[in-house]
Design goal:
By secondary structure, this protein is of the alpha+beta class. It has 7 helices and 7 strands, in the order H-H-E-H-H-E-E-E-H-H-E-H-E-E. It has 2 domains: 1-43, no CATH class; 44-202, Nucleic acid-binding proteins (OB fold (Dihydrolipoamide Acetyltransferase, E2P)). Helix 1 crosses helix 2 (29-39). Residues 59-82 are annotated as: Disordered.
């Protein structure tokens, strides 16, 4: 059985013993602890699939030739389906461009992060192409854009179904490069796998 972290324990972490933690605007320590209690899993969910596997399973088949309008609509969206997905937070250059997601893999002001397929992470880890750290590389940027279909956008929502207005790394103490398993509802919208998450488990290295 999957268990979630106790709210009381997480509240102690959020508040801190000696040094108070700076909380996001409009959020109390109790709210932060409640979100962590609900969303952080202490046991790994079974039968996780990769981003690519889930995307391929959810992507609707093309409509018959001649039905162009229906085909365009079909290729854009898929119905929401329960999913369990494994991947890495980041682990590649920004495939969306700095204008669209400047804090990649995070989204500023929202509990949204980019989950990258393990094969893509391994491909960039094994890349022999070298450049200075932090240097903008057109080769890497182009390669990342080509692999954008191997990235899922994971969103944590509030009771109204809106993205929680806090970055995911702040909300759940997540870190770039962590391998995680996400549960929730997935759909392919305009070619992008989007997951409305109800839980996340962080694998230990």
């Amino acid at each position: 059985m999957i268990r979630y972290l106790p709210a009381v324990f997480l509240l102690a972490i959020a508040v801190g013993c000696e040094k108070p933690q700076t909380l996001p605007a409009g959020m109390t320590a109790e709210q932060m602890a409640d979100y962590r209690s609900k969303l952080l899993m202490t046991a790994e969910p079974a039968d996780a699939k990769t981003v690519i596997e889930v995307r391929n399973a959810l992507q609707p088949a093309d409509s018959p030739e001649g039905e162009e309008e229906e085909a365009e609509q079909s290729s854009a969206d898929s119905p929401p389906t329960g999913v369990t997905v494994v991947g890495t937070i980041g682990g590649m250059p920004n495939p969306f461009g700095s204008d669209n997601m400047p804090a990649f893999p995070w989204m500023e002001g929202q509990a949204v992060f980019s989950l990258v397929d393990p094969t893509t992470v391994a491909e960039f880890e094994g890349e022999e192409h070298q450049h200075a750290e932090g240097e903008e590389c057109m080769f890497c940027a182009g390669k990342a854009r080509d692999l954008v279909d191997t990235v899922a956008l994971v969103t944590f929502v509030d009771e109204q179904g809106q993205p929680i207005p806090v970055r995911s790394d702040t909300l759940l103490d997540l870190k770039q490069g962590q391998e995680v398993v996400v549960t929730g509802t997935g759909s392919v919208e305009l070619g992008t796998l989007r997951i409305v998450a109800d839980g996340v488990f962080v694998r230990q290295p």
